[in-house]
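Morning!

This is the sequence you dropped in the shared folder:
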Amino acid sequence: MNREDGILLESGTGELEILHFTVQGEHYAINVVKVKEILNIDNISKVPNAHPAVPGISLIRGDVITVIDMHMVLENQKNEAVEKSMTLVCEFNNMKVAFAIDEVLGISRITWEQILKPSEITSSSLVIGNINLNNKILMMLDFEKIVMDISPQTGITQERMATVPSKDRSKISLVLADDSPMIRQVLKDTLTIAGFENMKFYNDGDQALKYLMGLAEAFGNDFTDEVNVLITDIEMPKLDGHTLTRKIKEDKVLKKLPVIIFSSLITGDLRHKGESVGADAQLSKPEVGQLVELIDAMVRL
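The structure's back. Tokens below.
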């Protein structure tokens, strides 16, 4: 799935490629960079006492990978022909997972601005954005939440939170941008335990950028009295984390603001994207303990 040419390998352009697929007649999308391979799996082995959405595991190119039945996830109906299904082998949060779907309809290039936030009514669902593609609504799914709902230990767990060193960090000012309400709340809870008190959260990069630009305009080079570190996700409607980082690092005032990209997409294959836009550090979710260590190092605590 990786592409070695074209503008989309450049980071911070505000563009992405989405893979358009269907499950039981409904249309969905996933960021192409998460998809390592598309194939049919015919060697699923059942796992005792597995979650109802996990028909089993499969050996794919030497790796034992968990298979998730998207029929069960999205419609609460078991796919009886799961072994004949098209499967998306994905990598995020430093793990590989296979998602059994029905059909792949193609790949399209869009901008992050084209991804519309879901309404408040559906904001707690698995849909993180809606895309109007050729008069067809595609629902962009939160695959990380799907995995965490099935296996909570893959997320920011109580065990990980227990390793976070707690001390007075009330003088540190953080700005955090993440479109997931769940991740924002977990980060708030975890960082509060670590001793942070001054935190501003935004659910997309555009809101965070407007706030930071306002500080730069109001305080000039002294804006760092108001904010010490920016922590940003990559996948966000309107303005993604790579573009947000690039805009900050290209600004003559804001460029000295430390930026940590905290995302499920930090992998060996994709780390160069954050480096190319000038991120000061990159960390894969859900290693929140390392996140606190990075913040401390950047503000010299």
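Headline: Confidence is low (pLDDT under 50) at residues 1-9.

More detail when I'm at my desk.
O.
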